[in-house]
């Protein structure tokens, strides 16, 4: 079952008072917007294969596919981010493995190594030929050394990111926060992220929304993307 989003009115009022609007990124430019889909892989979603199973992630797939279609249709780009283990991680990220039971480390390596079933994207995702796939080797896709996503986005003129995937409170929130600090406008999609529990899901969204960026539902973003794209076309005529 999809996580139930519940952002308190106090938080919404605080953001509105601070920024003068509850949605600072409502004016996003669809042609400079990227959908970032984080870790929707068998290694998080498939029974008996996953090293960190989040069954809620299966339920966000239709929303992610809808957003991908809307982003492409309005001139943006779609990026599928794959959590990846390589042998360098054992030394360069040794603290993670020191905090993880050996059996779980072995399962993570099996699940997240390229070429394995766990590393593959979930089969029901609507991945198109024009989309990009990017490997990352840390929770955040934007922390130094994790991936080349930042360089790719800057080269393609992207300034706004829509964050989806799993887990809301780990890889998605980490990537969203770091992206904002790299000067992107960032939106976390409330029904396009998944966590183990509603508490973790809402805590992550609340923490992000209070300081780092915006939150919207899939329906709201699809409407905004098309409305803003139509407005830009009219202005150009």
From TrEMBL:
Q: Which residues form the Isochorismatase-like domain?
A: 33-220
Asked whether the UniProt record includes Hydrolase among its keywords, one would answer yes
- Recall the GO molecular function terms of this protein's record: hydrolase activity
Q: Which domain of life is it from?
A: Bacteria
InterPro entries on file: Isochorismatase-like_dom (IPR000868), Isochorismatase-like_hydrls (IPR050272), Isochorismatase-like_sf (IPR036380)
**What Pfam families has UniProt attached to this entry?**
Isochorismatase
Keywords recorded for this protein, A-Z: Hydrolase
Q: Which PANTHER family match?
A: ISOCHORISMATASE-LIKE DOMAIN-CONTAINING PROTEIN (PTHR43540:SF6), PEROXYUREIDOACRYLATE/UREIDOACRYLATE AMIDOHYDROLASE-RELATED (PTHR43540)
In its UniProt entry, what is this protein called? Nicotinamidase-related amidase
Taxonomic source organism: Thalassobaculum litoreum DSM 18839
């Amino acid at each position: 079952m999809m996580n139930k989003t519940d952002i308190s009115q106090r938080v919404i009022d605080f953001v509105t008072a601070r920024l003068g609007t509850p949605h600072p990124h409502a004016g996003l430019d669809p042609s400079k917007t990227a959908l970032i889909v984080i870790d929707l892989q068998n290694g998080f979603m498939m029974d008996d294969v996953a090293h960190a199973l989040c069954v809620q992630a299966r339920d966000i797939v239709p929303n992610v596919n809808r957003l991908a279609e809307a982003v492409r249709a309005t001139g943006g780009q779609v990026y599928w981010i794959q959590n990846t283990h390589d042998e360098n991680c054992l030394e360069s990220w040794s603290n993670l493995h020191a905090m993880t039971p050996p059996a779980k480390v072995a399962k993570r390596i099996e699940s997240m190594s390229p070429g394995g079933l766990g590393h593959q994207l979930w089969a029901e995702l609507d991945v198109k030929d024009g989309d990009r796939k990017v490997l990352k080797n840390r929770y955040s896709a934007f922390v130094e050394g994790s991936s080349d996503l930042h360089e790719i986005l800057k080269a393609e003129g992207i300034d706004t990111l829509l964050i989806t995937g799993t887990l809301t409170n780990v890889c998605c929130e980490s990537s969203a926060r770091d992206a904002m600090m790299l000067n992107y406008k960032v939106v976390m999609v409330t029904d396009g992220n998944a966590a183990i529990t509603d508490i973790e899901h809402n805590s992550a969204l609340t923490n992000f929304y209070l300081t780092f960026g915006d939150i919207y539902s899939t329906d709201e973003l699809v409407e905004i993307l098309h409305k803003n794209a139509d407005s830009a076309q009219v202005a150009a005529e």
